[in-house]
Every structure is written in C-alpha cells, then in structure tokens.
Amino acid sequence: MSFRALIVDDEPLALDGLRILLTQDPEITAIEEACSGKQAVAAIQSRPPDLVFLDVQMPEMDGFDVVNAIGAENMPAVVFATAHDRHAVRAFEANAVDYLLKPIQRERFLAALRRAKTHAKAGPNWADRRIVTLLESFGKAPRRLRRVAVRSGGRTTFVSIDDIDWIGAADNYVELHCGGVCHLVRCSLSEIESALDPEEFLRIHRSTIVNACRVKEVRAAAAGEYTILMEGGERLESSRSHLENVRALIRNPF
User: Fold this and answer.
1) What is the pLDDT of residues 9-32, one digit of tens each?
2) The domains spanning 3-129 and 148-251 adopt the same CATH topology
3) Which residue among 38, 83, 107, 198 is least enclosed by CB atoms within 10 Å?
4) Which neighbouring-strand residues pair with 197?
5) What is the DSSP letter of 102?
6) Which of 126, 85, 127 is nearest to 108 (CA)?
7) Tens-digit pLDDT profile for residues 111-122
8) Rounded to an integer, what distance in angstroms lies between the CA atom of residue 56 and that of residue 207?
9) pTM, 2 dp
C-alpha cells in the first residue's frame, strides 16, 4: 500500500529531518511540506494526505488550531511533534495517533509511522475506534486520561474523567455514566481501563469499572461477591475474580 504524507513545521531543519526519515520508507510515495498552520489547512483541504506529521508550536496558527480548523473527526492520521511533552493530553483530545518529542529519535519515529499507517489503512473513521492513543510515554509512566471525547453525529463533547460515576461494557462500546446521563463511546473496557488512574477507578466486574470516590456503600453478598451502592443510587455487582479490588476499596476508601 502507498501513502501520501504531509509534514508541517515552521523550522526548515525540522522539515528536512522528517523528509529524510520518510523517504527511507518505500510505502511513502509522496511528501508534501507546509511551513505554517495556514498552509497545512489549505493542503489538507485541497488534497487530503494519508498521514500528517504536525508540529504543535507554530506562530499565528499552531498544530491544535489546524486540527480545529479541519475538525478532529475529519483529520487524516496525525502524529504531533513538539519539544514540550505538556501537550500530550491535548494531542489525545485532537485524536492524535501518536506523539513525538523533539529531538525526534529514529526508532521512535518509525514506531509512530507504523502506527499512523495502520490507522490510515483503517479508513476515515479510525479515530472513532480508539479512545487511547498516547499510552506510550517515551519510557516514562503512562499519562492518565483526563477527558473523553464523545462523538454523536457531527458533534464532539468532552467529558471530564472526574464527572464519571461508573463505566459499563456494552458490546463494542463503553457506557460512561455521569450523574444520570449515559454517554456511549466506541472502545473496549480494557482500553479505557488502561488509561485511567488505578487509584481512582477500580474494576469490580469484567463489565464494570467504578469511580472509587462515588461509591457510597459496599455490602457483602455471596462468598467473594459484593453489592456496590453508588452515590447516584445505582446498585452494581462485583465478581469473585475482582475481589481484591473491592477489598482494596474497603481498606482504602480514598
């Protein structure tokens, strides 16, 4: 399969470095360059590339402004690049496939390129099939998810992790229960669990994760099983396979 790539950076040396790396991949058949956010938007709108390597910090119009102008749901597979890793959470919210920290290391770039090509092959709705795209953090502890992008029609709503009472599995989706409102997100329970802080969210059943701070009461049921009463009034059942998590909740109620 062949791919068209767009590299966006206001620094000529950065563009040169990305171009050199991309030309080493035989599947990259075309490389377009943009040295500003405005040029990037024009390039994506006129002839959408398959892959975009997008610098975060640029004058006048930064990388996130580019995504906002195109629409996160309409962006090709995008990899952000910047000298500052504090932008990682925003990169996730913009549906980034991956995130490169400058100076870019060749092996790290190749890993991001493989991931981007995989998503490009998945088609235009690749972003809807993933909720976590920045779990790798360059050898550091994983960054924890703070907001979830919920898509409905042409709208994207961001739900704060702190507003979630509990999360339930629903086939290929998860249900985010927030104060009586349920949001549906396409991903697996395991995917979202891996991005949550394990000290705040506990899995009590193969299909249920609870926000420990929203648990009102724990009642013993059958041997090794409990009924979890949430502050909103919901009654959730734990399973024996997740007994240790419930015991941890009882020992340390946060």
Assistant:
1) 999 999 999 999 999 999 999 999
2) no
3) 107
4) none
5) S
6) 85
7) 999 989 988 887
8) 37
9) 0.51
